[in-house]
Amino acid sequence: QAQLVESGGGLVQPGGSLLLSCAVSGINFRNYAMYWYRQAPGKQRELVGYITPTGDRTELSDSVKGRFAFSRDNSKKMLYLQMNNLKPEDTASYLCNAGNYDIWGRGTQVTVSS
User: Fold this and answer.
1) What confidence score (pLDDT) does residue 55 get?
2) DSSP secondary-structure letter at 101?
3) What is the 3-state secondary structure (H, E, C) of 12-58?
4) Do 94 and 80 meet the contact criterion of CB atoms below 8 Å apart?
5) How far is residue 41's CA from residue 44's CA, in Å, rounded to a whole number?
């Protein structure tokens, strides 16, 4: 059974950085494009971006481009989201997803506030 577990969230000041991780088990990780989504209270879930199965290409939403970066380690079945220059509007629960199928983690909360 697929299991995705996010970690690394927390409270950070504007301009700060966080590294989110997603540990994956139960699927052939290297075969899946991996996605990060985020959802703020009262708002729809928003696609942050994705990384291809080999990690050779990433696509990020305009709202985070230039500040966030994806990476993955297929040998460890790990997905990462490096978030820099965080803004209050980045506050949300961040969820990883496998293949854009209905395979989700529970999310990790990121709060950007002074």
Assistant:
1) 95
2) S
3) ECCCCCEEEEEEEECCCHHHCCEEEEEECCCCCCEEEEEECCCCCCE
4) no
5) 8
